[in-house]
Amino acid sequence: MITVNAGNITKGMYLIFKDKPHLVTKTEFMSPGKGSAVMRVKYRSIENGAALEFTYKTNEQVEVADVEKREMEFLYRSGDDLFFMNSKTFDQVEVPMSLIEAQIGYLIPNLKCWVLWYKDKAIGVGLPPNVVLKVVESPNEVAGNRINAPKKTVKLETGIEAMVPIFIKTGEKVLIDTTSGEYLGRVK
Amino acid sequence: MIKTWQRIKNDPKLLKTYFIRERVIQTIRDFFKKGGFHEVFTPIMVPVPSIEPNLEVFETQLRTSQGLKKRAFLISSPEYAHKRLLAAGVGSLFEITRSFRNEEEVSRLHSPEFTILEWYRVNADYKDTMKDFEQLFLEIIGHTEMLYQGQEYDLSLPWPRITVAEAFQRYSSIDTEILLDEKKLIEVGKERGYKVESSTTWEQMFYQIFLNEIETKIRDSHKPTFIYDYPLAQASLSRPKKEDLGFAERFEVFLAGVELGNCFSELTDAEAQHKRFEADKTLRQAQGKLDFPIDEDFVEALRSGMPMSSGIAVGVDRLVMLAADVPSVSDTIFFPDNELFSL
């Protein structure tokens, strides 16, 4: 059994809570009044999507869910499900949107990513560190404000927004960090 | 990683959020000056820091040109200096200063270097400080409805007050008799599925139940709440209640899941204080924390006579975070530690 020290739990981990697998959606370190430190963890059940929270002592051991990663290709979204395909076997699998969260903003068709499995059930997706996305909406450059190397907010093809330098125009492609959402560069 | 100063330069609108700190600190100063408190200025670097069993301090070394070497520490709170000043006869006082805590997770509510507000009202007890706190907070926010991260909170006075014993009874169905009994409390916790090891202490179980079953319900009430009368084991520097010896005159105040302040009717009994320091020193040693002597000069100040006072420590960064409606204390600091030290 693999365990993690509760003090080291981070967002995105899959842990066993009350005998069931859960995704960590948020963590908060607290040191109450004069007491010893604790870690408050917000969970989402990967079985039914229910949100729960629990506060651990930081030195408590918490069981890690045995999650397996398989490389797959993102196909499309249909209703509340996302469909992925194994490019070698052409097997397809769906993952409910409720388990994907912010990652949805980086999924473009044919993107190579990892589908996460727990006991033969697809439960989530792991993204590459950065993705290339097309700018679909961009405000006009504001004249006379170049000294401060300003940035502007643009809309990308997946619907998310990003702060980019003002020289980026609609139709151009940009490299975006999938963890921070930050602009990394222009792609020609 | 883009730095805060760069982000501000790119988007000068952000300054508005950072300037809220300036306004909050001005409001605090005005509030206490109007109330007849003296503003005091005490050292950040001291020869003996607070001997809290659960907090680690920063240590450095003071060296003179003559080659004299002295251990020196950054304060984790200015309380020992303040109480000396109370004993000296300064009267009601306050200070906004920097404090430091080491070996803590850098998180939404914690930063190794932080701004602390402490105030002491003489000839007063913790119930007077509750009134000071709710009025101060209301002045900072400016109105009785507070919107924080999309949630509304009702700040109308007086704020709800509940004793620790009532809270355990109401939200967790645990009687005072069980609450104060180490074995029984751990037994109940075990039945409820909390992890119990041979090393599990009463204090750990107290907080497991408090944070999982009580604090979450207080947060969901959408009102600030004073939790008061802590079991003696958590008295720290507070004095025992006259009417009920199992509890001490201490409160903590919570809002939106954030602990905003910790207040004591201050212990003025020098010998009792010395005993607690000895126990805390032993606990520090047992946990492998930095070992340093008991602050005998502070005990001496108590022995010389300190007026009955009530004192509170408040995390200013948290007040600013709430006033600015931002998710994390680092969003209100120009040079947050996580950015400075790449944490």
Automatic annotation (TrEMBL), chain A:
<dbReference type="InterPro" id="IPR012340">
    <property type="entry name" value="NA-bd_OB-fold"/>
</dbReference>
<dbReference type="InterPro" id="IPR020599">
    <property type="entry name" value="Transl_elong_fac_P/YeiP"/>
</dbReference>
<comment type="pathway">
    <text>Protein biosynthesis; polypeptide chain elongation.</text>
</comment>
<dbReference type="Pfam" id="PF08207">
    <property type="entry name" value="EFP_N"/>
</dbReference>
<protein>
    <recommendedName>
        <fullName>Elongation factor P</fullName>
    </recommendedName>
</protein>
<dbReference type="GO" id="GO:0003746">
    <property type="term" value="F:translation elongation factor activity"/>
</dbReference>
<dbReference type="Pfam" id="PF01132">
    <property type="entry name" value="EFP"/>
</dbReference>
<dbReference type="InterPro" id="IPR014722">
    <property type="entry name" value="Rib_uL2_dom2"/>
</dbReference>
<keyword id="KW-0963">Cytoplasm</keyword>
<comment type="function">
    <text>Involved in peptide bond synthesis. Stimulates efficient translation and peptide-bond synthesis on native or reconstituted 70S ribosomes in vitro. Probably functions indirectly by altering the affinity of the ribosome for aminoacyl-tRNA, thus increasing their reactivity as acceptors for peptidyl transferase.</text>
</comment>
<dbReference type="InterPro" id="IPR015365">
    <property type="entry name" value="Elong-fact-P_C"/>
</dbReference>
<dbReference type="InterPro" id="IPR008991">
    <property type="entry name" value="Translation_prot_SH3-like_sf"/>
</dbReference>
<feature type="domain" description="Elongation factor P C-terminal">
    <location>
        <begin position="131"/>
        <end position="186"/>
    </location>
</feature>
<dbReference type="GO" id="GO:0043043">
    <property type="term" value="P:peptide biosynthetic process"/>
</dbReference>
<dbReference type="InterPro" id="IPR001059">
    <property type="entry name" value="Transl_elong_P/YeiP_cen"/>
</dbReference>
<comment type="similarity">
    <text>Belongs to the elongation factor P family.</text>
</comment>
<dbReference type="GO" id="GO:0005829">
    <property type="term" value="C:cytosol"/>
</dbReference>
<feature type="domain" description="Translation elongation factor P/YeiP central">
    <location>
        <begin position="69"/>
        <end position="123"/>
    </location>
</feature>
<keyword id="KW-0251">Elongation factor</keyword>
<keyword id="KW-0648">Protein biosynthesis</keyword>
<dbReference type="InterPro" id="IPR011768">
    <property type="entry name" value="Transl_elongation_fac_P"/>
</dbReference>
<dbReference type="Pfam" id="PF09285">
    <property type="entry name" value="Elong-fact-P_C"/>
</dbReference>
From TrEMBL, chain B:
<dbReference type="GO" id="GO:0006430">
    <property type="term" value="P:lysyl-tRNA aminoacylation"/>
</dbReference>
<protein>
    <submittedName>
        <fullName>tRNA synthetase class II (D K and N)</fullName>
    </submittedName>
</protein>
<keyword id="KW-0030">Aminoacyl-tRNA synthetase</keyword>
<keyword id="KW-0436">Ligase</keyword>
<dbReference type="GO" id="GO:0005524">
    <property type="term" value="F:ATP binding"/>
</dbReference>
<feature type="domain" description="Aminoacyl-transfer RNA synthetases class-II family profile">
    <location>
        <begin position="20"/>
        <end position="336"/>
    </location>
</feature>
<keyword id="KW-0547">Nucleotide-binding</keyword>
<dbReference type="InterPro" id="IPR045864">
    <property type="entry name" value="aa-tRNA-synth_II/BPL/LPL"/>
</dbReference>
<dbReference type="InterPro" id="IPR018149">
    <property type="entry name" value="Lys-tRNA-synth_II_C"/>
</dbReference>
<dbReference type="InterPro" id="IPR004525">
    <property type="entry name" value="EpmA"/>
</dbReference>
<dbReference type="Pfam" id="PF00152">
    <property type="entry name" value="tRNA-synt_2"/>
</dbReference>
<dbReference type="InterPro" id="IPR006195">
    <property type="entry name" value="aa-tRNA-synth_II"/>
</dbReference>
<dbReference type="GO" id="GO:0004824">
    <property type="term" value="F:lysine-tRNA ligase activity"/>
</dbReference>
<keyword id="KW-0067">ATP-binding</keyword>
<dbReference type="InterPro" id="IPR004364">
    <property type="entry name" value="Aa-tRNA-synt_II"/>
</dbReference>
<dbReference type="GO" id="GO:0000049">
    <property type="term" value="F:tRNA binding"/>
</dbReference>
<dbReference type="GO" id="GO:0005829">
    <property type="term" value="C:cytosol"/>
</dbReference>
